[in-house]
Design a protein that fits this description.
The protein is mostly helical. The protein is built from eight helices and two strands; from the N terminus they run αααααβααβα.
């Protein structure tokens, strides 16, 4: 019997792919694909600018984009992308992780997102929600009178199981 080949370890200890479950890796891959607007296998400043524009944020400063790209040790391919998320998520609780995902759609940090907007994003991006799934979400978390979704409360319930008063 031939000896098993040792898995090559990535600098810093362990393989980044072992930090996540297969389903999570698939979700990160979908997010990466959405952000890699020019489909070259790397996320660069132009891809980030286009991604922000697609989310309705048009006036992103060049410095802001440069700072994001500088966080990576080099060109941002999928493995680097996953590693960066792995480092950011290490030690965060699920509630904080989910909150951070919602904050992307809430650049002013108000804690609310237009229900119509989140519905459109959920039904048109990546793992698309069906109308029924949207209806279930809004039945459980109805938007307020101005049509906003309180995502902080939503995140709390997702991670803790019941609404806080």
């Amino acid at each position: 019997q031939a000896p098993k080949k040792a898995k090559k370890k990535i600098e810093g200890g362990s393989n980044v792919f072992s930090m996540f479950e297969q389903s999570q890796i698939q979700e990160f891959k979908e997010a990466f694909t959405i952000m890699d607007q020019n489909r070259d296998g790397f996320i660069d400043k132009a891809d980030l600018r286009d991604t922000f524009a697609a989310l309705g944020r048009l006036n992103v400063k060049n410095e802001e984009l440069e700072d994001m790209v500088k966080e990576a040790p080099g060109p941002i391919n999928f493995t680097v992308f996953l590693t960066m998320f792995g480092e950011k998520l290490k030690g965060t609780d699920p509630e904080e992780t989910i909150l951070n995902a919602f904050k992307i759609f809430d650049p002013e940090g108000k804690g609310r997102i237009k229900a119509d907007y989140i519905k459109e994003m959920l039904m048109t991006q990546a793992d698309r929600f069906s109308q029924e799934e949207i209806n279930q979400m809004f039945a459980a978390f109805p938007p307020d009178v101005s049509g906003n979704l309180d995502y902080k409360n939503l995140c709390y319930v997702i991670t803790h199981g019941e609404e806080k008063d």
